[in-house]
Amino acid sequence: MERKKFIQKLGIGVVTPILTTSFMSCDKGDDIENMTPNTCSPSPSETAGPFPIKSPTERVRENIIGNRAGIPLVINFTIQNSNNNCNPLEGVFVDIWQCDSKGNYSEYSDQLDGNFTNEHFLRGRQTTDAKGQVTFTSIYPGWYPGRAPHLHLEIKRGNASLLVTQVAFPENVSKIVYATSNYKGDFDTANTNDGEFRDSLSQNLADSVTGDTANGYTLKKVITVAG
């Protein structure tokens, strides 16, 4: 789907000071091993959007930044199995994709800043370890009209999709990041007004986002699938 048509469907016709921010949706420890779920129900299913990853088998990598500029973001996911008492799910693929600091997606044309068909930034695949965990090195995503800041991900066992979902960001952190030079200012859509998140925000919201604009942030999120 072309970006302009997608946005229409949504109804949308210098030196930076060091700012430290911490957001946690519940009382969890700082280590990825200590990430614990609030529930054993599957995480909400969300759309893949108009710009899904095209060839994930060619994007197996931890560092997905490519040539994009932005505030560093380490992404830690723990995948657990609702069919097995929410025990860690080992050996499944986690595919991730996101926009850059200006709201552009790679692999597609008709983006806000042009054609990125032949680029593959900010897309990747990792396989969960024995603890159900994967890590990606990225940048804090920007935003585009009609959507709150977000990450896309899909969990797959082989070629079978277990879940397509999205992760929302705490607005207080996003406001600080978007005041820095590589970003285009404050987002136009709140989490509670977002078409994907308004009915399931508590489940979509990152479990924690900690760090600062000088050293980058770390996002942690437990994702539950029926594996």
From TrEMBL:
This is Protocatechuate 3,4-dioxygenase beta subunit. The lineage of its organism: Bacteria, Pseudomonadati, Bacteroidota, Flavobacteriia, Flavobacteriales. InterPro entries: Intradiol_dOase_C (IPR000627), Intradiol_dOase_core (IPR015889). Residues 63-171 form the Intradiol ring-cleavage dioxygenases domain. It comes from the Bacteria. The keyword Nucleus does not apply. One of its GO terms (molecular function) is oxidoreductase activity, acting on single donors with incorporation of molecular oxygen, incorporation of two atoms of oxygen. Keywords: Dioxygenase, Oxidoreductase. Pfam families: Dioxygenase_C. The keyword Oxidoreductase applies.
